[in-house]
TrEMBL record:
Pfam families: LMWPc. SUPFAM superfamilies: Phosphotyrosine protein phosphatases I. Transmembrane segments: none annotated. Residues 9-137 form the Phosphotyrosine protein phosphatase I domain. This is Phosphotyrosine protein phosphatase I domain-containing protein.
Amino acid sequence: MECRMRDRPTVLFICSGNIFRSMTADFSLRAHLRASDEITIRSAGLGPPPHGVVDFVRDHLAGKGIDISEHKPTQLTPAMLEDTALPVAMGLEHREIIERDFEHRLPLFSEVAYGTVEALRDVWEVVPDWQNNLDASAEYGCSVIDYIHNGMPGFLERMDDFIARGSGKA
């Protein structure tokens, strides 16, 4: 999904399937922008999504006033990276894959938003038997959504510094 405005750079959030972490960052950044902010926001996944957006993600974002009903998962292309001032990897594995396959070295979401290097792991990486353990999956997933959403003021504060440093060819 893309929100295009004038004269500001593009931010691109990247995760595995563009149905959880990168999508949350995309919509959360939009929710934190002021009318005077001019920025292009995009999100993409490294591969096709394994399934649609799960209910707890949709519901938790809706509780923050964020409607994701128009979201269509997008797969990352080399052109997307080339046209982006600030591509951001949501997790360590995303950064490693992008550096290996696309020869780009990206900052992590946690670096831009919080000034720390932290793995922002997917539900299946943290919750044993995540498909059957729905309560634990939702609890962890909602904590990731909160982490991303609450990090957006810091992201906006540090974004220009990361753009000035340049994120590009490794």
